[in-house]
């Protein structure tokens, strides 16, 4: 890889995640100040959508942190950050509906969600060990260590790639539920979509960066075998 290509590679590696995080924060902060027409808090939205879908074994609780919202399938809990739990903003409604979208996926045994769950042990191992094995393998010139490290990294990358359809599907479910339950009107559709799309870009950026890193180390492995 030439110096120019090397610099472009690392520029993308650094800039893309920063841009994605900046986009989601700007969009979220804009719409966290705009009330939704239903006057419902994020917690209210989450509970209504769960009830409308006949899901009664999932709790909705408050959690600390900024944009720390998530669905925990092991404990059957939708966790909403404080603002999204209490406030009646368009951002809160969108984020709450998105997380409940994951709960609906879980209840309906959504295939990509199940596949992603099955990848967690190896993806976690890959995230924690791959760089160490690749580094040691490259220093020692050990093809075995380098190959094992790349294989483990591949599981982490696969997890990131499988995350994309899971997240986009949850957002699509969120939009459908927000409209069908009357939480938002048609006039709010565009703004709510902006919040969900901005959040999706963080997953796209993470997947692109992970894939680029895997390709880089695969090229290193092939070069060492020449």
Automatic annotation (TrEMBL):
Keyword Disulfide bond appears in the UniProt entry: no
List the Pfam families. Answer: Zn_peptidase_2
Which InterPro entries does the protein's record reference? Zn_peptidase_2
Bilayer-spanning residue ranges: 6-24, 131-159, 200-222
Keyword set for this entry?
Answer: Membrane, Transmembrane, Transmembrane helix
Q: What is this protein called?
A: Zn-dependent protease
Species of provenance:
Tenuibacillus multivorans
Q: What is the lineage of its organism?
A: Bacteria, Bacillati, Bacillota, Bacilli, Bacillales
